[in-house]
Amino acid sequence: MFPLTTNTAVGHSTDIGAIAQSPILRIFALGVFAVIFVQSFIYVRAAKAAGPSVGMEHRELNQAFRSGAIASIGPSLAVVIVAIALLALFGTPAVLVRIGLIGSAATETASAGIASTTMGAVLGGEGYNQQVFAVAFAAMSISGGAWMLATLILTPLLKRGGHKLSQVNPAAMALIPGAALLGAFSMLTLSELPKSTVHVITVVVSALVMAGLLFIARKLNAHWLKEWALGVSILVALAVAFVAHTA
Question: What is the pLDDT of residues 207-219, one digit of tens each?
Answer without folding.
Answer: 899 899 889 988 8
